[in-house]
Protein backbone atom coordinates (compact mmCIF):
# COMPACT_ATOMS: atom_id res chain seq x y z
CA UNK A 1 0.00 0.00 0.00
CA UNK A 2 2.76 2.41 0.96
CA UNK A 3 4.83 1.47 -2.07
CA UNK A 4 1.80 2.04 -4.28
CA UNK A 5 1.24 5.49 -2.80
CA UNK A 6 4.94 6.35 -3.09
CA UNK A 7 4.99 5.48 -6.81
CA UNK A 8 1.68 7.29 -7.34
CA UNK A 9 3.01 10.40 -5.59
CA UNK A 10 6.25 10.31 -7.61
CA UNK A 11 4.26 10.13 -10.85
CA UNK A 12 2.00 13.01 -9.80
CA UNK A 13 5.04 15.13 -8.90
CA UNK A 14 6.47 14.56 -12.38
CA UNK A 15 3.14 15.53 -13.95
CA UNK A 16 2.93 18.63 -11.75
CA UNK A 17 6.48 19.71 -12.65
CA UNK A 18 5.82 19.09 -16.33
CA UNK A 19 2.61 21.12 -16.43
CA UNK A 20 4.18 23.96 -14.46
CA UNK A 21 7.19 24.04 -16.80
CA UNK A 22 5.09 23.85 -19.97
CA UNK A 23 2.75 26.68 -18.97
CA UNK A 24 5.22 28.77 -16.95
CA UNK A 25 4.70 31.30 -15.45
CA UNK A 26 0.90 31.09 -15.47
CA UNK A 27 0.20 27.65 -14.00
CA UNK A 28 0.55 26.34 -10.47
CA UNK A 29 0.03 22.65 -9.69
CA UNK A 30 -0.73 21.54 -6.14
CA UNK A 31 -0.89 17.95 -4.86
CA UNK A 32 -3.12 17.37 -1.84
CA UNK A 33 -2.79 14.27 0.32
CA UNK A 34 -6.33 13.06 1.01
CA UNK A 35 -5.32 10.89 3.96
CA UNK A 36 -3.59 13.66 5.89
CA UNK A 37 -5.65 16.50 4.44
CA UNK A 38 -2.43 18.46 3.84
CA UNK A 39 -0.66 20.10 0.91
CA UNK A 40 1.95 17.55 -0.19
CA UNK A 41 3.62 19.29 -3.15
CA UNK A 42 3.55 22.60 -5.02
CA UNK A 43 5.02 23.25 -8.46
CA UNK A 44 5.45 26.94 -9.42
CA UNK A 45 3.94 28.36 -6.24
CA UNK A 46 1.55 31.19 -7.16
CA UNK A 47 -0.79 30.93 -4.19
CA UNK A 48 1.85 31.39 -1.46
CA UNK A 49 0.83 28.20 0.33
CA UNK A 50 3.33 26.00 2.13
CA UNK A 51 3.89 22.28 2.25
CA UNK A 52 1.93 20.86 5.15
CA UNK A 53 -0.76 23.55 5.02
CA UNK A 54 -4.31 22.36 5.46
CA UNK A 55 -5.62 21.38 2.02
CA UNK A 56 -9.20 22.40 2.76
CA UNK A 57 -10.62 19.09 1.57
CA UNK A 58 -13.38 18.84 4.17
CA UNK A 59 -15.99 20.09 1.72
CA UNK A 60 -14.73 18.02 -1.20
CA UNK A 61 -16.10 14.58 -1.97
CA UNK A 62 -14.70 12.47 -4.77
CA UNK A 63 -15.87 9.04 -5.81
CA UNK A 64 -14.92 6.72 -8.61
CA UNK A 65 -17.45 8.40 -10.91
CA UNK A 66 -16.19 11.94 -10.16
CA UNK A 67 -12.49 11.98 -10.87
CA UNK A 68 -12.56 15.50 -12.32
CA UNK A 69 -13.98 18.69 -10.84
CA UNK A 70 -14.03 21.99 -12.72
CA UNK A 71 -12.97 24.10 -14.32
CA UNK A 72 -14.04 26.58 -11.68
CA UNK A 73 -12.94 30.11 -10.82
CA UNK A 74 -11.35 31.37 -7.63
CA UNK A 75 -9.50 34.45 -6.42
CA UNK A 76 -5.79 34.38 -5.62
CA UNK A 77 -4.09 36.31 -2.79
CA UNK A 78 -3.16 39.16 -5.17
CA UNK A 79 -6.75 39.66 -6.27
CA UNK A 80 -6.17 38.01 -9.65
CA UNK A 81 -8.55 35.37 -10.91
CA UNK A 82 -7.54 31.76 -11.39
CA UNK A 83 -9.24 28.94 -13.26
CA UNK A 84 -8.78 25.57 -11.67
CA UNK A 85 -9.45 21.90 -12.10
CA UNK A 86 -9.11 19.17 -9.47
CA UNK A 87 -8.29 15.60 -10.44
CA UNK A 88 -8.68 12.76 -7.95
CA UNK A 89 -6.02 10.07 -8.13
CA UNK A 90 -7.58 6.81 -6.96
CA UNK A 91 -6.24 4.78 -4.10
CA UNK A 92 -7.96 1.69 -2.81
CA UNK A 93 -11.62 2.64 -2.71
CA UNK A 94 -10.98 6.36 -2.43
CA UNK A 95 -8.75 9.12 -3.73
CA UNK A 96 -5.19 8.94 -2.52
CA UNK A 97 -4.22 12.36 -3.82
CA UNK A 98 -5.93 15.29 -5.48
CA UNK A 99 -4.03 17.14 -8.20
CA UNK A 100 -5.14 20.78 -8.55
CA UNK A 101 -4.11 22.73 -11.64
CA UNK A 102 -4.49 26.48 -11.16
CA UNK A 103 -4.23 28.76 -14.18
CA UNK A 104 -3.70 32.44 -13.43
CA UNK A 105 -5.78 34.33 -16.00
CA UNK A 106 -4.50 37.77 -15.02
CA UNK A 107 -1.93 37.95 -17.85
CA UNK A 108 -4.61 37.04 -20.40
CA UNK A 109 -7.08 39.57 -18.97
CA UNK A 110 -4.41 42.28 -19.11
CA UNK A 111 -3.66 41.39 -22.73
CA UNK A 112 -7.39 41.39 -23.55
CA UNK A 113 -7.85 44.82 -21.97
CA UNK A 114 -4.81 46.20 -23.78
CA UNK A 115 -6.07 44.87 -27.13
CA UNK A 116 -9.54 46.28 -26.57
CA UNK A 117 -8.04 49.68 -25.76
CA UNK A 118 -5.67 49.55 -28.74
CA UNK A 119 -8.39 48.44 -31.16
CA UNK A 120 -11.11 50.72 -29.81
CA UNK A 121 -13.04 52.24 -32.71
CA UNK A 122 -14.12 55.18 -30.57
CA UNK A 123 -10.65 56.71 -31.00
CA UNK A 124 -10.74 56.48 -34.79
CA UNK A 125 -11.55 59.42 -37.02
CA UNK A 126 -12.95 59.24 -40.57
CA UNK A 127 -10.38 59.27 -43.35
CA UNK A 128 -9.84 62.77 -44.76
CA UNK A 129 -11.96 62.73 -47.92
CA UNK A 130 -9.65 64.84 -50.05
CA UNK A 131 -6.51 63.01 -48.98
CA UNK A 132 -7.86 59.54 -49.79
CA UNK A 133 -10.23 60.20 -52.68
CA UNK A 134 -7.73 58.67 -55.14
CA UNK A 135 -6.55 55.81 -52.93
CA UNK A 136 -6.92 53.13 -55.63
CA UNK A 137 -5.15 50.50 -53.53
CA UNK A 138 -7.74 50.72 -50.78
CA UNK A 139 -10.54 50.59 -53.33
CA UNK A 140 -9.02 47.44 -54.83
CA UNK A 141 -8.60 45.93 -51.37
CA UNK A 142 -12.21 46.68 -50.48
CA UNK A 143 -13.59 45.17 -53.68
CA UNK A 144 -11.25 42.17 -53.54
CA UNK A 145 -12.09 41.14 -49.98
CA UNK A 146 -15.81 41.72 -50.48
CA UNK A 147 -15.58 39.45 -53.54
CA UNK A 148 -13.77 36.80 -51.49
CA UNK A 149 -16.35 37.07 -48.70
CA UNK A 150 -19.20 36.49 -51.14
CA UNK A 151 -17.37 33.42 -52.47
CA UNK A 152 -17.05 32.12 -48.90
CA UNK A 153 -13.33 31.54 -49.29
CA UNK A 154 -10.05 33.19 -48.36
CA UNK A 155 -7.25 34.92 -50.25
CA UNK A 156 -4.86 32.05 -49.53
CA UNK A 157 -7.38 29.46 -50.77
CA UNK A 158 -8.12 30.97 -54.18
CA UNK A 159 -7.43 28.58 -57.04
CA UNK A 160 -6.25 29.67 -60.49
CA UNK A 161 -9.75 29.77 -61.98
CA UNK A 162 -11.04 31.90 -59.11
CA UNK A 163 -8.11 34.29 -59.49
CA UNK A 164 -8.87 34.63 -63.19
CA UNK A 165 -12.53 35.42 -62.47
CA UNK A 166 -11.43 37.94 -59.86
CA UNK A 167 -9.12 39.67 -62.34
CA UNK A 168 -12.04 39.85 -64.79
CA UNK A 169 -14.32 41.37 -62.17
CA UNK A 170 -11.63 43.83 -61.08
CA UNK A 171 -11.18 44.92 -64.69
CA UNK A 172 -14.93 45.46 -65.04
CA UNK A 173 -14.81 47.50 -61.85
CA UNK A 174 -12.17 49.74 -63.42
CA UNK A 175 -9.38 48.65 -61.08
CA UNK A 176 -6.74 48.63 -63.84
CA UNK A 177 -7.11 52.30 -64.73
CA UNK A 178 -4.60 53.38 -62.10
CA UNK A 179 -0.90 53.30 -62.91
CA UNK A 180 0.87 50.21 -61.51
CA UNK A 181 -2.45 48.65 -60.47
CA UNK A 182 -1.73 45.53 -62.53
CA UNK A 183 1.52 44.98 -60.64
CA UNK A 184 -0.25 45.51 -57.33
CA UNK A 185 -3.05 43.07 -58.15
CA UNK A 186 -0.56 40.49 -59.41
CA UNK A 187 1.35 40.77 -56.14
CA UNK A 188 -1.77 40.50 -53.96
CA UNK A 189 -3.05 37.44 -55.86
CA UNK A 190 0.40 35.81 -56.04
CA UNK A 191 0.22 35.77 -59.82
CA UNK A 192 2.90 36.56 -62.32
CA UNK A 193 2.59 39.96 -63.97
CA UNK A 194 2.48 38.28 -67.39
CA UNK A 195 -0.41 36.07 -66.20
CA UNK A 196 -2.47 39.10 -65.21
CA UNK A 197 -1.80 40.77 -68.58
CA UNK A 198 -2.70 37.51 -70.32
CA UNK A 199 -6.08 37.53 -68.57
CA UNK A 200 -6.59 41.17 -69.53
CA UNK A 201 -5.77 40.41 -73.19
CA UNK A 202 -8.29 37.57 -73.14
CA UNK A 203 -10.93 39.96 -71.80
CA UNK A 204 -10.11 42.47 -74.56
CA UNK A 205 -10.18 39.79 -77.27
CA UNK A 206 -13.56 38.54 -76.06
CA UNK A 207 -14.94 42.06 -76.25
CA UNK A 208 -13.86 42.47 -79.87
From TrEMBL:
Query: Which residue numbers delimit the Transcriptional regulator DauR-like HTH domain?
Result: 140-201
Give start and end of each YheO-like domain: 12-113
> Which Pfam families does this entry report, sorted A to Z?
HTH_22, PAS_6
User: Where would one find coiled-coil regions in this protein?
Assistant: none
Superkingdom of source: Bacteria
Listed InterPro entries: DauR-like, DauR-like_HTH, YheO
Protein name from the UniProt record: Transcriptional regulator
Tell me what organism the protein belongs to: Rouxiella silvae
